[in-house]
UniProtKB/TrEMBL annotation:
Pfam families in alphabetical order: CvfB_1st, CvfB_2nd, S1_2, WHD_CvfB
Organism: Paenibacillus prosopidis
Chain intervals for the UniProt region annotation (Disordered): 292-321
Gene3D superfamilies tied to this protein: Nucleic acid-binding proteins, Winged helix-like DNA-binding domain superfamily/Winged helix DNA-binding domain
Domain of life the protein comes from: Bacteria
Lineage of origin: Bacteria, Bacillati, Bacillota, Bacilli, Bacillales
UniProt GO MF annotations: nucleic acid binding
Protein name: S1 motif domain-containing protein
Amino acid sequence: MSFVAGTTQTLRVTREVSPYGYFLSDGESDVLLHYTELVGSKPKIGDEVEAFLFYDSEDRLAATMKKPFLQLDELARLQVADVHPRLGCFLEMGLGRHLLLPLSELPESIDYRPLPGDEVFVVMKHDKIGRLIAKIAYEEELSKLVFPAPASWNNQWVEGWVSKTLQLGSFVIIDGGVVGFGAYGLIPSSERTRPLRLGERVSARVTFIREDGRVNLSMAQRKEIGRVEDADRILAFIKERPGGGMPYSDQTDAEIIKQKFGISKGAFKRAIGKLMREGLVTQKGSWTYLAQGPEAEAAGQSVQQTDNGAASSQSEGAETE
């Protein structure tokens, strides 16, 4: 038998060396079980113990009787304990020490990288010299565990963990509860209200269930519900503006709308349309004003002029908040 980091082996206690601990043997080699790694009563010489093998802080093979959350080649969802800008993320693994998720495993965009408290699906592996590291679990590993989403999920709100995030969208493992591991979902970029981090907890609405049991998701409410919420938020924003006007309208670029309000241009137009039908706002050129009579419009025009021509601009920089 040979010692392999990341595995649990049955080893015999051969001797005690104070003040360090016990040496365990597989019949050929010895490994140290430090006193701090004991669980339960102290073993006796000749006893057999179950020990997990790992590399300590000085890259020496060591043993522990503590149980890790995962072992070599196993998959688990681990919480991010700390983040190092040059090394990667350190994950809780149940041993009082951390498992490194290298920087090379993380998204290129910093906005998509995990933060402490996020939880990522990983597989325990060896690095080039045999030390234990984590690698992101992707579709190949996760697809073996997920179940097809039931039809009853359609248009329901669900929660899950982001397992992969890209510019085109974010993949989510939806909670399975008593049913099992979870189901696969995708939030397209157009249905995200903000960038999503790898390992982030997210709530989303099931918009479509595919034949293979995977689902499309949206972070937005249904149009008829979202329109009311978006309209209320936009109206409150305009009311807080000097003169009751804002340099956003149906003419504003979709990306600017997304950055400012976190919604699509289509959702913005639906919300503005609702406010206009209710007689709460009016539009003039690239500006939208509170519909409170000529005095309010005149005040809005004054703000527009003092913004150095901002009425013709559609950029965030045109605002003077």
